From TrEMBL:
The protein's name: ABC transporter substrate-binding protein
CC terms in the record's Gene Ontology section: outer membrane-bounded periplasmic space
Chief subcellular location: other
Domain Fe/B12 periplasmic-binding: 50-311
Keyword Iron: yes
Compartments where found: Cell envelope
Organism: Plantimonas leprariae
Length: 311
């Protein structure tokens, strides 16, 4: 997956993809991805039947297209970071994205391996096992929310399911519209969306990231107006959250076990406006670096929570 866990390819400020393409337009994105697996106009009968995915966001797209997945990198982390949809039991864990089990992947006899530019260090090894399609959603200068639409269309075309891709996108847009209508009736306060790194630091979301696009799509205001990296977050000390006195804090799980107990003993934390006034919510995980299914999950969770606290 694209930078879900801290690794040697990640800094305290987030993932450091080593070979992302910069400055692509949407047209270049589609053309570049297609060039890696260039058989346009596939019918469903000709489409790859056994697919291994090295990335959680791309796996989401496969599920949205009703395409079965034979193998997935770091399967065990799915329940912690992605949650839904639940993984079918038959999907095989093929190792870490940056260190895949090539022998196991070969035994699965895939027709296609899905990967991202972030995993280019292992690209040549994957290509020796099976045809490989490389798709990027997260990179500098791109908006992941829009890119996830592009990637859904691209994979729909490449996998012989363009009609299913179009239906899914239409269904998603109708749901986003319905949630936006619910939020207009509430007029909630600005939100601070965070993940706790530890008891002193949070990742606060904004910029061009997925969470920001979800807020925009359903008509909610982000209280964080600072700079964010192209993954859509900034790492700040919890004291910096005082700059948004009227906001509701939304903390997404997982939360380090000692973070909130430690903060509860901190006078600085207790005096933050959203803590003092009881405007803090904790929500289940949403994949920060996901695709359209994660966007929908984020929108649903936010809407349900804001309606709950408004009653």
């Amino acid at each position: 997956m694209e930078a879900v866990r801290r690794s040697d390819a990640e800094t305290p400020d987030g993932p450091c993809p080593r070979q992302l393409f910069r400055g692509w337009t949407r047209r270049a994105f589609l053309a570049g991805a297609a060039a890696t697996f260039a058989r346009p106009g596939r019918s469903a009968a000709e489409a790859p039947a056994r697919i291994v995915s090295m990335d959680y966001a791309l796996t989401e797209i496969l599920f949205s297209l009703d395409v079965p997945v034979a193998g997935l990198a770091e399967r065990e982390g799915w329940q912690e970071w992605v949650v839904e949809p639940a993984l079918p039991a038959e999907i095989v864990d093929v190792g870490l994205p940056q260190a895949p089990n090539l022998e196991l992947i070969s035994e699965l006899r895939p027709d296609l391996i899905l990967t991202t530019p972030w995993l280019d260090p292992v690209l040549s090894s994957l290509q020796r096992v099976a045809p490989t399609l490389r798709v990027s959603i997260y990179e500098e200068g791109a908006t992941p929310f829009a890119r996830s639409y592009d990637a859904t269309r691209l994979l729909g075309e490449r996998l012989g399911r363009p009609d299913r891709a179009a239906r899914f996108i239409a269904e998603a847009d109708r749901e986003f519209d319905a949630i936006a209508a619910r939020m207009r009736r509430l007029a909630p306060p600005p939100l601070l969306l965070v993940n706790f790194v530890d008891a002193r630091h949070v990742r606060v979301y904004g910029g061009d990231g997925l969470y920001q696009s979800v807020l925009d799509r359903i008509g909610l205001k982000n209280a964080f107006q600072g700079e964010a990296n192209y993954w859509g977050f900034a790492t700040v000390g919890v004291e910096n959250l005082a700059a948004s006195p009227g906001a509701r804090l939304i903390a997404f799980e997982p939360i380090p076990p000692d973070a909130l107990p430690t903060l509860a003993r901190s006078p600085i934390w207790r005096e933050l406006p959203f803590v003092r006034d009881g405007r803090m919510s904790t929500l289940p995980p949403v994949l920060t670096f996901g695709a359209m299914l994660s966007s929908l999950r984020c929108a649903r969770l936010l809407a349900d929570e804001l309606e709950r606290v408004a009653t």
